[in-house]
Amino acid sequence: MSEEVTYADLRFMTLEQPRKQELHGANTKDAPTPSPYWRIVAVILGIFCLGFMATAGVLVVKFTQVSHLMSEREVQENLTQQLELLQAQNLNLSETLEQLASSRGFCNEISTVIQFQFFLDWFIS
């Protein structure tokens, strides 16, 4: 029961090797030589690109800061308007209260309330 293994080397003739050599030779003969300045130009363009990117980043940050300040200013103006409105309503109520007190004769009690109200107005402002 002996088994024998036989190996054979097969070699196929291919036509691709000479074609590749011909194409490689043709490329090296016909291709123009690159300019020695292309690397310098590429570096300069890369630096410009990085500069533009940095400038865009700075402008985005400034824009967000300005928009944030504008929204804060709008909130502050809104609160100022509300404060002025409340102060005007408070003054109207104080005048109405004084008129009622003088017409009904509650001068002492009402004057104490009015003095307290003016103290609160002064304290809040």
Automatic annotation (TrEMBL):
The keyword Transmembrane is assigned to this record: yes
> What protein name is recorded for this chain?
Oxidized low-density lipoprotein receptor 1 isoform A
* Organism taxonomic ancestry: Eukaryota, Metazoa, Chordata, Craniata, Vertebrata
Q: Which InterPro entries match?
A: CLEC7A (IPR042808)
Q: Which domain of life is it from?
A: Eukaryota
Q: Which residues cross the membrane?
A: 37-61
Give the GO biological process terms: cellular response to molecule of fungal origin
| Annotated organism of origin | Alligator mississippiensis
Swiss-Prot/TrEMBL keywords: Coiled coil, Lipoprotein, Membrane, Receptor, Transmembrane, Transmembrane helix
| Keyword Electron transport attributed | no
Q: Which residues form a coiled coil?
A: 69-103
Please list the GO terms describing molecular function: (1->3)-beta-D-glucan binding
